[in-house]
Write a sequence for this structure.
């Protein structure tokens, strides 16, 4: 009976030693602290971040297939209504491909995804974030601009016109095939 008791104690000691080895790290008080890389919270992980600060998925409307007032072309984007000056955020990691002014879109940003397969188009902007430049790498959630109504947008209804285009290898920033951004932004998480 005594042998079984010592065997049980020995197994318990081995178990505790293994637990300490794999689960506990003893660090001297004067050692520099290095934190493991942080991972986004589960709610932040998704295909795309809603590109306007503070806008919840429930505030989005799928306007992708709507025909514009002129009746000549489909919308091929969604409009995200927000107060003038509200921060416009990079929807994903990537690189600023083009800062551009057009009569329709006004002040715009074209951002290419990190893998080069998509262009994210942000239009009707009030202004760019300080220092934003073509070729600059941006991270998901980084402020790149502010909501406005430049171009042909109604001055009384500031919003972000947001479009996504699938790109063929080597295709120019103004090309691509429109993809509905709504399901990429508003999916249940």
């Amino acid at each position: 009976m005594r042998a079984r008791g010592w065997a049980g104690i020995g197994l318990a000691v081995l178990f505790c030693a293994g637990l300490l080895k794999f689960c506990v790290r003893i660090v001297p008080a004067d050692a520099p602290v290095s934190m493991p890389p942080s991972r986004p919270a589960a709610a932040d992980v998704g295909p795309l971040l809603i590109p306007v600060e503070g806008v919840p998925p429930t505030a989005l409307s799928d306007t992708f297939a709507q025909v514009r007032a002129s009746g000549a072309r489909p919308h091929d984007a969604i409009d995200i209504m927000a107060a003038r000056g509200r921060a416009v955020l990079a929807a994903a990691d990537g690189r600023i491909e083009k800062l551009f002014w057009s009569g329709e879109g006004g002040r715009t940003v074209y951002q290419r995804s990190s893998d080069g397969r998509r262009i994210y188009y942000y239009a009707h902007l009030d202004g760019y974030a300080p220092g934003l430049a073509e070729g600059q790498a941006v991270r998901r959630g980084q402020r790149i601009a502010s909501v406005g109504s430049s171009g042909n947008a109604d001055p009384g209804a500031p919003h972000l016109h947001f479009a996504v285009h699938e790109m063929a290898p080597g295709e120019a920033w103004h090309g691509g095939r429109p993809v509905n951004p709504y399901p990429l932004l508003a999916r249940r998480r």
The longest helix spans residues 2-23. The two ends are 56 Å apart (CA to CA).
